[in-house]
Amino acid sequence: MKKFQLNVTSEIGKLNGVIVHTPGIEVENMTPENAEKALYSDILNLSIAQKEYAQFKGALQKITNVFEVKDLLSETLKSHEAKEVLLEKICCEEKCFEIIEDLKSIPSEELAVQLLQGVPIQRDNLTKYLTEDRFALRPLHNFLFTRDASMSMWDNVLIGKMASKVRERESFIMDTIFQYHPTIQAKTINPLTEKRKFPLDPRVSIEGGDVQIGAEDLLVIGCGSRTTTQGIDFIIETLKQRKDAPKHIIVQELPHTPESFIHLDMVFTFLAEDKCMVYEPLILGRNKYQTIHIEIDNGKVKKIETEENLLKALAKRGIELDPVQCGGTADRWTMEREQWHSGANFFSFAPGKVIGYARNVHTIEEMNKHGFEVITALDFIAGKKEVNDYKKVVVTIEGSELARGGGGARCMSMPIQRESFNW
Ligand SMILES: NC(=[NH2+])NCCC[C@H](N)C(=O)O
């Protein structure tokens, strides 16, 4: 079987492979009461979400190799060792050792589904009879956002250290896939299992929505409710040990509320060699959230300093980007409304070619003013429009229901291979 070599050195290089997860029944196993705990702002209508998602995946399939977590996981679980290691980890962390033998006996395909969609509780003792829980293993409501639990950094995968326990299993699953899958393998760096002199600081958390590969030698990382300063320090420590480590890290502080600011990619995404999407009030406007540049040289932090803003910090390193504003430029309320619905969250599949939500009409109009042709995913999938006919293009997917899950196109994609791109 041909091995798939993982390599991502930018946010916009031409995409050759991406991991996604089509939302399934796990998304409906949620009530108004536990939606917030599940990290959702609302409960979703699955049939509509799936229709919208089909546009996203359909468009991607016309562009690149698309891998589903469910398939990768079931192929991975065919390895006896992978199955043992993953189940031990999950049952230990989620305190359900009593079901491990039952889980081991389930064939890999079905087991993969259960690990994603949840394992119903067997009411075979008093505690279980009386509990209000329905699941021995909770459904993974957030896995459609494959961006967060693991992130491709050059030829390695950094495994997320999730800020919330409800997403932890996603990171165990991704770690196991990259270690044991027969064709998609990569060296993983997992904060929980890396060898170190001291125990891991419990405040370390890192999620992929915050980590953007600016260039071969530059990372841009959001620091807020999901990725902590300690998490970024962990990344710096890890990078320091690499000879070919990127020299520059630009950190952007983020507000902790409202929840639409959870990740950097909700306020800033790369669109093209000369364009980026910004939520202006945070990225360019005057505010208390700092942008900090960290320079690493020869295994040491050589410099840490505050910069005027993210775009100026990037420009100093040779990445000059013209900002396109989320929500347009006219009305602050429109910016806020469209940012809330993941209006700044674009996924680039080639320089200048991106996917995003159609519902954020002011944002899309603003992109059009900046030279992006707008085509719907439906027209693209039907062959009525071609992305190769335009230098800059935004493929729009309907996303009214998906956006309620709290993310957009970038959140729903984990690129594993891109052609290299030099600024
Ligand atoms: N990369 C992103 N912005 N991901 C969005 C994740 C949303 C998800 N409901 C969460 O709270 O975790």
Describe the secondary-structure layout.
Blueprint: E1 4-5, E2 15-20, H1 32-35, H2 46-63, E3 65-68, H3 69-76, H4 80-93, H5 100-104, H6 108-117, E4 119-120, H7 126-130, E5 135-137, E6 150-153, E7 156-159, H8 168-180, E8 184-185, E9 187-189, E10 211-215, E11 218-223, H9 229-240, E12 248-253, E13 268-272, E14 275-278, H10 280-283, E15 291-297, E16 300-307, H11 310-316, E17 322-325, H12 332-340, E18 347-350, E19 353-357, H13 361-369, E20 373-376, H14 377-381, E21 393-397, E22 414-418
Parallel strand pairs: 1-8, 2-3, 7-9, 11-12, 14-17, 19-21, 20-21
Antiparallel strand pairs: 2-22, 4-5, 6-7, 10-11, 12-15, 13-14, 15-16, 18-19
Helix pairs in contact: 3-6, 3-8, 4-8
The structure holds arginine (ARG).
Please give the CATH architecture: 5-stranded Propeller
Give the class-level CATH name: Alpha Beta
Share of helix, binned: 25-40%
Named once each, the bound ligands are: arginine
Q: Low-confidence parts lasting 5 or more residues at pLDDT below 50? A: none
Cα(first) to Cα(last) distance is 34 Å
Number of domains: 1
- Largest beta-sheet characterization: 5 strands, mixed
Strands of the biggest beta sheet: in what spatial order? 10-11-12-15-16
Which word captures the global form?
globular
Q: Per CATH, what is the topology?
A: L-arginine/glycine Amidinotransferase, Chain A
| CATH homologous superfamily label | L-arginine/glycine Amidinotransferase, Chain A
**Content-based structural category:** alpha/beta
Classify the beta-strand content into a percent band: 15-25%
Number of helices: 14
